[in-house]
Amino acid sequence: MSSYQSISQRKEEFRKYLESNGVVDAITKVFVGLYEQEARPEDPLQYIRQNLGGKEAEDLQKDNENLKNEIKRLTERLSQLETQNDADQEETDEQNEA
Prior knowledge:
Blueprint: H1 2-20, H2 23-36, H3 44-97
Helix pairs in contact: 2-3
């Protein structure tokens, strides 16, 4: 019986933790929004992900995409500079040999 009370007590503490940090309200709002949709989304899980993360998640996705593009651009630029550096080094070596 004591293990049942322990599990029940832990569940109650966890519920209070979620409630006090606004998690229950946030999830409830998303579920209510989903319920009130006239046309049900094809992918309800995607709907929940988008609406639970809110604007912040969208902004992070955009930032992530922008940073990936910047990495690609800088990697290409680094390659160009390395090629130019190699050519300059060969020219310098040739001039020193002469």
